[in-house]
Design brief:
The complex is a heterotrimer of chains A (134), B (115) and C (663). Chain A contains one helix and eight strands; from the N terminus they run αββββββββ. Chain A is an alpha+beta fold and 134 residues long. The longest helix of chain A is centred in the N-terminal third of the chain and has 24 residues. In chain C, the strands form two sheets. In chain C, strands 3, 4, 5, 6, 7 and 8 form a six-stranded antiparallel β-sheet that branches. In chain C, strands 2-11-10-9 form a four-stranded antiparallel β-sheet. The chains are: A alpha+beta (134), B mainly alpha (115), C alpha+beta (663).
Chain lengths: 134, 115, 663
Amino acid sequence: MARTRSPARLVVALGVAAALAVFLLYTSLAGGGTPQLQPGDLRGRTGTVQLTGRVVGPVRGDAYAGGLRFRLRDIAGPASVPVVYTGTVPDLFRAGRHILIEGQLRDGVFVAKPGSMITKCPSKYRPASQGAGS
Amino acid sequence: MTDVDLGSLIGGALLAAAAVVLVAFPFLREPDLPPERDTLAHLTPLERRRLELAERRDRALAALKELELDHRAGKISDEDYRFLVGPLRQEAAAALRALEAEAGLGRKAGVPAAR
Amino acid sequence: MAELGRAALVVCLGLSAYALLAGVLAARHGRRRLALSARNAVVASFLAALVASGVLLAALLGRDFSNSYVASYTSTKLPFQYTVSAFWGGQEGSLLFWLLVLTGYSAFAVLLNRRHEDVIAWTVPVLAAVQLFFSLLLVAVASPFATQPPPLEGRGLNPSLQNPYMAAHPPFLYLGFVGLTVPFAFAVGALLARRGDELWIVLTRRWTLAAWTFLGVGQLLGAKWAYEEIGWGGYYGWDPVENAALMPWLAATAYLHSVMVQEKKGMLKVWNVSLVTLAFALSLFGTFLTRSGVVNSIHSFTQSSIGSWFLGFIVLVVVFSIGLILRRLPLLRARTRLESPVSREAAFLYNNLLLVALTLTILWGVVFPLVSEAARGEAVTVGRPYYNFFLRVFGLPLLLLMGLGPLVAWRRASLRSLARALAWPGAAAIATGALLVALGAGSYVPGLVAYTFSAFVLASIAVEVVKGTQARRAVSGAGWGQALVELVGRNRRRYGGYVVHAAVVLLAIGVASSSGYQTVREGRLRPGQSLAVGGYELRYQGLTRRWVENRREDRVLVAASRDGKEVALLRPGKNRYPVEAFFSTEVAIRTDWLTGEDLYVVADQIDADGTVYLKVFVMPLVSLIWLSGAVFVAGSLLAMWPDRREARRLAQRYVQPGALARA
């Protein structure tokens, strides 16, 4: 019987190559991901981003009719941006909360993707995770 | 407050004592063990070889059993069965023979046979 | 009593340090009494951890608010069961719980296997090292026994955590995470003892199975909690903290399969040791993610220094393991090799590749924000689409493999015999696929594929069982029922495995159905108005408001009917906790047990004028997900069930070292 190299190595190598190829193909086609920014970094960014910051009142409007309007401020800084949000509002939402929303800056106002708000509860080890995950 | 402190003290002392006893126990049990006898068992080369052979034998026997099972259940065709069973039987026989040989060597050296 | 708790932790620390040092010395120089002493130290450390845990539990139950931890997580009004669960509800307590389980497992493992002196001699210091790390954290960094002047009232437990699933979720997860330490320690111990045989696998097989089962159940509990409590209409959000438990579970799944190859063929030794190290490292990484707040997650916890400790320990573990494996490489040379890419060994190999690929893509998704922040100064997160894509790309072939594996013979399978074995399951799959397309399942292709593959797997298992029972009957002449029992009894691991596969299939069907074929509708309603969703009609009847204990419950009365007949009165709404200044959404779920379908109603907004905004989901077959958990446990138990014949055979093979010389 001729001494053949173990096909195991070939199988593994092909498998790894295939997995890697799929991975690279996906990430190159679908694009990286969504950048996570604070309002201070938002200047001039036009694409879809994830904005994280603290809610600044007064909170006006109705999330299901015309949109909820408030300002979002840097966690540790003065920069803020007006936000208009539609969709499910997590229970923990209120002025002073640390939230995350996805959306785009349009004409100086951050228009959020409906239902993309997630609130973070500070300091407790296992807080309630409140989010309308898409 | 005082009895809480006392409780902690007693509890702590008991725990520490128990720990010390457990840790020192092997030395307390056999205090005068000479170093030649205070050795950790390890596999002798003979045992290592036998272990390897025993694993080979068990693997071959298990593979045979599974082949029989799959053949009887109809998962493996008669043709495939005939093709596969030969080498497996040879492997099992070889492993058994090698183990016998080891046991024989061992017997010559005065070491009892392992099963 | 806090002093006793602190003292117990210091004793545990000291014992672990002793066990590590003495253990290494004893193993290197072959000193028996010292090795036994080190082993006893591990057992004693369990006692110490037990005492410390007892003190914390007593403080919790006694509402001792002079203990900072107790004051932070309980209150006088907290019900009994949640006061107990507060033990593992916070950083320090959960670390103590981890230590308790770790020392318990270690003590049990080294005592049970004390016969195998050479391996245990090295396993003891490895376990001791891990224990040392956690005791050090508890003594120096995060003590559960910090005291303060007692306030009148504790801060209480977050109301949405006061839920039976959330109370049980961490213990199950920890029993799983910590359980992965044992096979890792035995693997490293065997390598250090220069043993290249399978003893460590044989000794830790049930440990790994048990840990893996606990980890799986823990995740399902978490998912059920998210589904019922959080109310966004889902059960898994691909949040880093959720992934933190999934990754070690996937690695452990791969490991459980690849050890079977080592057992039968003596191959993949290096791979197995590496996999068990990966699983253990991922379990540490998982708890690191959850605690350190390093990755931005909606579960983001305290930013604390504990993260760097964990990271350091993980790096240490990985570097040490890689170094050890490289040094012992000659010991791990395979005796046989893969003969054909179409064989059961190869199927296991593909299974492993897919599972590891999935694990690594999830890992990449989790650390990517950190990497991008370090590289570009900007944290970039990957979203659901990324995870869903790879779950399908790697998960669906895995599903198919579950059905193919049992049909392929070991060593080499001729394509002809494979084609014949595929006949019935393949036909069943195609028929199911065609039927489902006719029923309209073609709207969601991944779901259709998942169903087709699931049918394939179930048919393949059914064929296995039938053929096996037939063969058994031919041998023993018993009736069908008796033959089946005999068959399963003699092949517990194989049939346990089949049951677990069936559980995974149920999970796949449940997930595919409830996410891919769900119907969602939302709308604004005034009293008396209706909303039609997926065959149901929901009529908003009115509002209720009442005070219960410490909360105000606002409920929307919704009458759900199907074909004109009322099937349920649902009460979705919101709870308001004035003291904690907390709101929670209470979802109303109506489960149709016959069809496994859930009607899931969320009252998103209740306006002052009585108008409500409802969001309604109809989730087909979601109950299968929870059912799969029960089937999963049953299968694992079957696979773990003691087999006296096998135990005897293994005992004969693995004699006590030096037994031949001494006899």
